[in-house]
Amino acid sequence: MRLVLLGPPGAGKGTQARALGALWGIPQVASGDLLRAVVREDSDLGREAASYMDRGQLVPDDLVLKLVDARLRKEDARPGFILDGFPRNVTQAEALAKGLERYKLKLDKVVAVIVPDEEIVKRISGRRTCRNCNAMYHVMFEPPAKPGVCDKCGGELYQREDDAEETVRERLKVFAETTRPLLAHYDRLGLLAQVNGVGRTDEVEKRILTAVNGVAVPPK
Asked: What's the gap between Cα 64 and its chain centre?
């Protein structure tokens, strides 16, 4: 299975990708995780990526493509993969298709997880992260026992710059301008399915499984 999950930031793509990856025995490949990893390296490439991410803007295509291509060439991605947060625009989609063609591969399905903007703002702006162990909380949905303090290690909880409401709204604006045209692109290719991303995690997972029915590999 070679699956792309599309949707705005905060749509739950990461949660679904991890669950489906475990079900099918294939890796979740999240462009956001790849970018955050390179930022932690404190390299020129990492600082360049951070300058875009901190403003809620998309990182340039050439930088993201290098990271994703290197990840997809690893051994664990040979049986398949679930792309989460990539591609973000038609240019990236076309580059991905060309890259897969080199190995005589192609995507099986593209699923768009649809969530209203105001729900996204509520989800993301309420996130809090532990400075010490990086544990994640939410002020409404999964609050810590003591406000501002990590349950696991006692570290300080903070709001990442890219989780601030102003930044979230900018990210949604960028998504609307650059990523939504992907729906039309993949629809023309006959690969697209759209699912409602509002509801319990297991409910959304069932919708995705229904969308890929007849394509998905059986669980291992």
From this structure: 13
> Tokens in use for 29?
């490949």
Rounded Cα gap, residues 7 and 87, in angstroms: 10
Q: How far is CA 71 from CA 5, 35, 113, in A?
A: 17, 12, 23
Q: How far apart are CA 87 and CA 61, in angstroms?
A: 9
Query: Quick one: average pLDDT of 90-100?
Result: 93
What domains can be seen in the chain, in order of their start residue? 2-211 (3.40.50.300)
Dump pLDDT digits (tens) for 145-161.
999 999 999 999 999 98
Residues 38, 136 contacting (CB under 8 angstroms): no
Tokens matching residue 139 = 């002020």
- Phi, psi at 217, each rounded to 5°: -75, 150
What are the backbone dihedrals phi and psi of residue 138, each rounded to the nearest 5 degrees, phi first? -140, 135
Q: Which of 88, 123, 128, 207 is catalytic?
A: 88
Beta-bridge partners for 156: 149
Look at residue 214 in the predicted model and tell me its pLDDT.
66
Contact between residue 29 and residue 82 where contact means Cβ atoms under 8 Å apart: yes
Q: Which is catalytic among the residues 2, 71, 123, 127?
A: 127
Annotation says 55 is catalytic = no
**Is 88 annotated as catalytic?**
yes
The answer to whether 13 is a known catalytic residue is: yes
- Contact 38/145 with Cβ under 8 angstroms? no
Q: Clarify whether 131 is annotated catalytic.
A: no
